[in-house]
What does this fold into?
Amino acid sequence: MKPFVVATDKGNPFPLRSLDLLFNLLRSRSLDALAKDFLTNFADAVGEPKYLNILQDVANRKIRAVQIELDDLFNYKDLDEEFLQRVTENTRRYISIFAEAVDELMPDPTEVLSADEDRDILMTQRVDDGTDAADNSDPLQKMPSEIKRFFEVYIKAFSKGTPLTIRQVKASNIGQLVKISGIVTRCSDVKPLMQVAVYTCEDCGFEIYQEVTARVFMPLFECPSNRCKTNKAKGNLILQLRASKFLKFQEAKIQELAEHVPKGHIPRSLTVHLRGELTRKVSPGDVVELSGIFLPIPYTGFRAMRAGLVADTYLETMSVTHFKKRYEEYELKGDEQEQIERLAEDGDIYNKLARSLAPEIFGHEDVKKALLLLLVGAPHRKLSDGMKIRGDIHVCLMGDPGVAKSQLLKHIINVAPRGVYTTGRGSSGVGLTAAVQKDPVTNEMVLEGGALVLADMGICAIDEFDKMEESDRTAIHEVMEQQTVSIAKAAENINLPPALLSRFDLLWLILDRADMDCDLEMARHVVHVHQNLESPSLGFTPLEPSLLRAYISAARRIVPSVPRELEEYIATAYSSIRQDEAKSNAPHSYTTVRTLLSILRISIALARLRFSETVAQSDVDEALRLMQMSKFSLYSDDRQRSGLDAISDIYSILRDEAARTNSMDVSYAHALNWISRKGYSEAQLKECLEEYAALNVWQIHPNTFDIRFIDA
It folds into this structure.
């Protein structure tokens, strides 16, 4: 079959393949002109030539990365949508086009550069020897542009728009620029990746260049220069590693976020390649947004024989954006500094911050305060002999099903800059700590971090902790760094070992007790949230998670100290707790020296919230109150409210109701109705009336038993 031909103006046939080459050449030249025009004329918001300034910094060796943003291409008036679409759908080709444009536009350095780098010395020597101008008829002797470049070009996706999940990246996205989100689960070491291999011929002495575009390549062994061919000499080539060009290379694994995984499915993962200046930008546990080119990669070796035509896929990363930065890396944006200063002057900031945690969840004020202090924490202490005392606060939430324990944990993970939510049922000991796996890049055995490793220096929330096997649960004894643990179990089944319980600073038992007033108020709250998709009015505007994160990051920079006059006060309080426990013989409660350290940690966290350099006695009192309330919550065998005995609780109910009605007189019928709603009996009410009448708190009518408060 003959090739198709077309007629030219002169009537001579012209092969279609040559015409395609001509069109491609013309298009390439027009694309180069467009790229140069954009880099030269695009101005930023203040009218400065953005990319020319970047190129000047590159020429002065201040930076190495030239990042072309699609937002800038979209806003540039002289580029049409078709060009933008071609950049998005054929990104790798346009990276080379922009790189060639940068080569032509690169200005001379305006600062004195030190020529002590190997690359500079070799390039100077090549220019002096005329290597670049050598026999241009031999393409292998011509110096490739890659070896001359001391910069890297990246194309960044649009900043707006929701990133795709790994599950949404399909075969139709091959070769395109995509933006995905996920959590980094594994990172390899940074290795050198050969970009241009340079050989020296032992016979003719020429330098031969071989561009490497894949992960593997076949080295040259015989000199292909024209001189060796003319002399019919098979010159032996020696690979010059010092003269070759290498690029920093790192491989990572990114996994779907938990909220993106459909029910009944396992999270999907994607291999990510990071090159040059993008290496060392991510670490396991980081929640990131990556933009890059979705590309296929063929299997090699024995796997290729089994795979056949099937290829693996990976993401060639172009930009890295962290969703939540670590506290120490957090930079305040806009008016956040003013908002934090204004909040710090608020006398009720402690309560407002606590109520801003999961405002859609009704009640649990003290539990929310405990979780707030967990986020703030205390600084780590390192003694002169090298011994370390942790500053992180551990919280254990226990209770009946349906009391919002899991929702509280998930909200904490949302606020924390680094956090992992997992369940005890789906976590083995290896899944929580670390697993040994084979690195596909180096074939070395590497450790892949589990949930506790991914949450290092952050929060690890483990739900259904009691569903774990005992052997798995013991695996985290010594790796309890920063975590909250939820045990979704009925109260009478709490049976965790003392060695584990003593590692928690606060243990909360959240029971679902029947209480008509509380149940009615909670039902109204839930219905309001369900209908309006927001919490009822709290009397103030709850802080957004981003502002809460900014406030906590500012508070964590404070390192409060305990004044000497409070040392005796804390020691006495600890001694009293030990004595009370010995007398009461309370279940599920273990007071050790760790409890004393817990008091100090919670007090320091409270001082941090006030941006105070010293711990006040009010901080210690609040820490003791929280610990006492957490212990009272464990005494589930008595019907106690707020940790009080029945008589005191009935008195509190009557006093609160009298204050609410603004009356000093309470009828016996009303009193009986109020306490019956709380689950108390008439006999307990009469006992309370007699006891407090003897204390001259109120007077009792001898016939009707109505109550009159003596002290308003």
